[in-house]
Amino acid sequence: MARRPDTSTLDLFRDLEPTPVVPRFADEDVRAWTPARRLSRAIAKTMDDSGKSREEIAAALSAQIGEKVSKAMLDAYASPEKPHAISALRLAGLVAVTGDVRALNTLLAEAGLIVIEARYEALLKREKARELKERAEQEEKAADAEWRARR
User: According to the UniProt record, where is the region Disordered (predicted)?
Assistant: First the structure.
């Protein structure tokens, strides 16, 4: 006899969407032909999503890095049509000012790298140690097998 599905119990996890460990833009938000244009789109989206005006971001960025950054400079960095590339120092400052690492992850994606929160570093060290341990155990087993085969 087939059981009828339970319709009276709520599914507590139905709408659960875990927070991404690595914040990234949706592909369609930064789609472009070149990495430089993708970064420009990411910078524009970062500033648009920050809830601050570009003047406020420019002032905060200037204070953060100790260099004068104007709204016009930010506009140029955010425009895929302008031949202005943001410096690493200014991009890091933009991340610090907005709290949004997605632009940096857009840039690093070309190199196969990501930005993660420093609190996860210990977990990564642990996993790397486990991988090294497993590799050493495999090498030990292979050496034992070779030893037994040569007796």
Answer: 131-151
Higher pLDDT, 136 or 150: 136
Q: For residues 103 and 94, what is the distance between their CA atoms, to the nearest angstrom? A: 9
Task: Give the three-class secondary structure for 95.
Answer: helix
User: Could you give the CA distance from residue 2 to residue 140 in angstroms, rounded to a whole number?
Assistant: 53
* Residue 80 tokens, joined: 């895929």
Cα–Cα distances in angstroms (integers) from residue 93 to residues 9, 66, 79, 97, 102, in the given order: 49, 10, 18, 6, 13
Residue type at position 52: K
Coil, helix or strand for 101?
Answer: coil
Which tens digit of pLDDT belongs to each residue from 13-47? Answer: 777 787 777 888 888 888 888 888 999 999 999 99
> 127, 122, 128, 124: which is closest to 114 by C-alpha?
124
- pTM greater than the 0.90 cutoff: no
Contacts 24+ apart (CB under 8 A), 32-40: 32/80, 35/107, 35/110, 36/80, 36/85, 37/80, 38/106, 39/85, 39/86, 39/103, 39/106, 39/107, 40/77, 40/78, 40/79, 40/80, 40/82
